[in-house]
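dumping the sequnces here before i forget
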Amino acid sequence: MLDRSAFLSYMSPMPAPFPIPQNPAKHTLFEDLQGFSIALITTAIGLTIIAQLGFITGQTAGLALVISYLTGYSFSWVFWLINIPFYALAWFRMGKEFTIKSALCVTALSILVAVIPKWMSFDTLNPVFGTVAFGILTGYGLLGTFRHKGSLGGLGVVALYAQDKYGIRAGIVQLCFDAVLFTVAFFLFEPSRVLYSLLGAVILNGVIAFNHRRDRYIAS
Amino acid sequence: MQTADPKADTHSLLEDAQGFIFGTAMCAFALVMLRDLGLVTGQTAGLALLISYMFKLPFGWVFFAVNLPFYWFGYKRMGLKFVLKTFACVALISVFSEVFPHFVSFETLNPVFGAIMLGFMTGAGLMAIFRHGGSLGGIGILALYLQDATKFKAGYVQLAFDACLFAVAAFILPLPQVLYSLLGAVVVNLVIAINHRRDRYIAM
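..and the predicted 3d for all of it:
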């Protein structure tokens, strides 16, 4: 199974930005299970916090939040349904194991976001604190998911497909999607909500950009 | 994609700073849950919690004060850089844990879910602090110092300390709170035991 950075270096003439270890230690099944449990629960708490504050984020989760605010349907169902079309593409482009792992992660996250509010709800929640906490918690959760070779499906697969097929860099596709999503959100919601959301999205991406280094965390 | 590419084996100052802010914020958020549920934990943080419950003192100040005697051992055993990093982390936790309750409080918090969650978050926070060469000071340093001086294993010193702490807590907290506290402490230690691997996260 190729992880994203290995996939990028394999699929494109671009050299990898850093050397990728050739024979990294493997996680055991138990290690993967505890990794995904911690990562997905933490991600779900971050999403619970911004859902309570009415904020959004980027990528498929952000699109699902926007739709759930507009229609009143629960985030969990919208997020779960939105991801379905992407599995078809993932199946052919990224392989069976990646697709199944993605579907399991997306399903687990959807269930967690639905049940966590029964166990945990906030009395006071400062919006700046909430959006920063979201960025840190969900950034950490995604990092754990990636380090254990999982994915939350969705747009990343399309971005890699676009890179492969049309030579557009995957990161640019994702950035464009988020730019469109946040622009639309500015017209739909109060600007303050969107600005708080932007802060959270920046912190989330900062956590991943700083810490997702295959040359430092070398197990796969 | 990484544009600036610092060396794999050493963290830059900025990387350490974000690691410590992440780690201490995670631990401080977990402490908000811990105090909301009226639980304790192990080590110096647990001692500070017990003192703050018993004498109705603000946790942040107690935690900061409880750690002061240990920096000398830290300096002798681990050097100046480690002590400065540890001091910064302890100070950040002290401040965050006083400030966060103004920004976040819980309407409902299931104690089993809360204990597991705070275990995950404290485990994540501590691991980030350790991976960036810091610590939360206290008993761990003393334990290492004693291990050097007397050959008494550091792990046993910490275990004995926690055993005393939980024995005291059993007298002053209701039984369910003691059990939830134990659950949280077990989760923290499992998260670290499984994931804190210097052979997998190799940067210093």
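Chain B has one domain: 13-195.
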